[in-house]
Amino acid sequence: MNDLGRLINRKIGVTWGRWARTQNLSFPKSKPQNHRSCQGPNTTSTHLSAIFRPNTNLRSTNLTSEQTIFRANPNPRSTNLTPRKHHLQSKPYPPISPQNTPYSDKALTLGHHHPLQNIIVMRHGDRLDALKRSWKQTAQRPWDPPLTVAGTFNSLWSGGILRKEGFQIHRVLVSPFLRCIQTASVVIAALCASEEGLHVFMTKLGALEIHPSEFMERLAEFTSKNVVFDPTKINVSIEYGLCEALCGLSIKPEVIPKDGNWFADVSELETLLPQGIVDRFVECVYPKLPQWEEKQKVWCRRLKSVIRSLADKFPNENLLLITHAAMAAFSKKPVIVDKVAYCSHACLQRSATSPSDLEAPNKEISGCYLLH
């Protein structure tokens, strides 16, 4: 195992440490054999610390492609806003047992009778072009980057976080961008996994039994053995209205498709989602993509309109919307959109019996920088 692998394993160990200790798991206390200590602002250790702390201010210093692939966004767009900021951390991963998971049989009986309609608005995971700048130069679709390995890991983590929200998610609606589709697939796998299977997989991560280089392969194996996609419990579909703001602030003009063909047909995009639960009969609230050079204010109004329309369209269902930095539009306080962390989410609520405007309690916004 090379030094990079050891350091990534250590970071995973730190991340899962608290959860592992709550489960009375044996956790390695000593350093791996022949481990080399890395200290200083320009070391690999410093850069890898960004895996679970997206949008840091670290800058690249001669990183190799292997190192870059595991980094979080090193250069978030700067802003002129200088007020004091407060970073709301994500909730720790919950222990999984039949007694406390919302996906136990008892919780499932609540189903549509829950007094509140809940809408989770989540940002996608870590995107490859933000970590590996040279990716766009050779990519066939440079405007539509996939997730990194760290982004996939964070998506799985986020799916576990959503299991303890206290309600069942009935429907997932996804932006047509690839990073959102991939995020949705992993989050849904975590939501639909068996309690025992997910517990074992997380235990192995906590005990450092899975190296990051093996993570994607082991995740596929875990999904095939422990995940059952039941269309009577959860459905997923594409929603054009949840897409990124199509303007130069979000997408570099030099990488946009010259023929105007941003995505494949919806039917082709649906093949990338978990099969068996794709709802192909649902029509998009927003029937087509916005025009290029969409202004940010127009994007914000579009998101609000689409999210409210989706809530009205499925009034008896709890929704998970995988999109971009959309949760910023619903904050009661101003939010620096550039600093909305990957896989962060906001929980919007309203009465299911007498629908009203959606509300976003500030305490429920995870991973945003709020201005005071």
TrEMBL record:
Entry protein name: Uncharacterized protein
PANTHER family for the chain: UBIQUITIN-ASSOCIATED AND SH3 DOMAIN-CONTAINING BA-RELATED
Region ranges (Disordered): 26-45, 73-97
Organism: Amborella trichopoda
Segments of skewed composition (Polar residues): 35-45, 73-82
Residue ranges of coiled coil: none
InterPro entries, sorted: His_PPase_superfam, Phosphatase_SH3-domain
Source domain of life: Eukaryota
